[in-house]
Amino acid sequence: MLKRFALSLVLSSSFLLASLSASAQQFNVLLFTKTNGWHHEAINEGVDAVRKLAVRHHFAVDWHEDASIFNDEKLKKYQAVIFLMTTGDILNDEQQAAMERFIRSGKGFVGVHSASDTEYDWDWYTKMVGRTFHIHPEIQTAELEVLNQKFPGVERMPERFLWTDEWYEFGAERIKGLNYILAVDEQTFNPTVDWGTKKGQGMGKFHPIAWYHNYDGGRAFYTALGHLPATYSDKMFLEHIYGGLYWAATGKGIRKK
After folding, report:
1. Number of neighbours of residue 96 by Cβ within 10 angstroms
2. How far is CA 92 from the centre of its chain?
3. Quick one: which of 50, 95, 76 has its CA closest to 244?
4. How are beta strands 208-215 and 199-200 bridged, if at all?
5. Closest CA relative to residue 69, chosen from 40, 105, 41, 29
6. Which of 33, 51, 175, 252 is the most exposed place for a label (fewest CB within 10 A)?
7. CB of 181 closer than 8 Å to CB of 241
8. β-strands 28-32, 80-84: how paired?
9. Domain 26-250: which CATH class?
10. Among 165, 228, 223, 160, residue whose Cα is nearest residue 191
11. pLDDT tens for residues 170-226?
12. Over the chain (257 residues), what is each successive 10-residue block's mean pLDDT?
């Protein structure tokens, strides 16, 4: 009888410790990678990288490609949603409405790379992302400039540094009030591109790459970096992603001075 009681006590204690450990995680994140168009080679590396960030920074992450996760009941456990290299139309009307309610409840959104090449006909979404993808030239090395070191995740970046990526050219702002973090210097690469159906000449003196803003009761962060699989093993890039996620999920991290 005593042995059974002791065993029961040990099992109960183990369960309690496991529960406390899970609840002690900083926040919960939904990682979504559904594509309905171009499927990026780097998605698997991106998923692995976010999972490692979750271990490093003690948050919980669930990876899904099934859009049925977008309903009020399933979303309520998350503090932020990451659209990692999503493309095309990926949510139906009901799922879009659930996503809108999620953000309006004070939650956060993180868009990585082709999240701006997603849901062009969903006006609310394109305003949340801030700008939509237009075209890109061939992958090249260029010089990035940090515009705002007060935002988390860029504080240890040099003011200017070389970076190799797929440099997205964007359309006009879909909403006012975007806070820009990174820009690429078009004098350091060739932005000219011709796909036959559309062309690109670059964006001129100001070519933004990453930004954030408060949106419809919640928070939204976007970065165009992240096309190449090797990018997801770069410490500076991962700090950039986590800084945006930390702010989106918690509203914390922006320095006042």
Report:
1. 18
2. 21
3. 50
4. unpaired
5. 29
6. 252
7. no
8. parallel
9. alpha beta
10. 165
11. 999 999 999 999 999 999 999 999 999 999 999 999 999 999 999 999 999 999 999
12. 46 44 80 91 95 98 96 98 98 98 98 97 98 96 97 96 98 98 98 93 96 98 97 97 98 89
Q: Give 202's contacts (C-beta < 8 A, 6+ positions apart).
A: 169, 186, 191, 192
The residue ranges of every structural domain in the chain are 26-250
Tell me what pLDDT residue 13 has: 45
DSSP letters spanning the chain? -HHHHHHHHHHHHHHHHHHHHHHTSS-EEEEE--BSS---TTHHHHHHHHHHHHHHHT-EEEEE--GGG-SHHHHTT-SEEEEES-BB----HHHHHHHHHHHHTT-EEEEEGGGGGB-TT-HHHHHHH-S-EEE--S-EEEEEEES-TTSTT-TTS-SEEEEEE---EE-S-SSS--EEEEEEEGGGS---EE-SS-EE---TT--EEEEEEEETTEEEEEE----SGGGGG-HHHHHHHHHHHHHHHHS------
- Beta bridge partners, 221, equal 110, 212
- pLDDT at residue 23 in the model: 55
Buried-exposed string 236-249: b where 16+ CB fall within 10 A, e elsewhere: ebbbbbbbbbbbbb
Other beta carbons less than 10 A from residue 70's beta carbon: 23
Cα–Cα distances (Å) from 162 to 141, 183, 188, 208, 247, in that order, read 7, 12, 9, 15, 26
91 CA to centre of own chain: 17
Tell me the pTM.
Answer: 0.90
CA 195 – CA 175 distance, rounded (Å)? 27
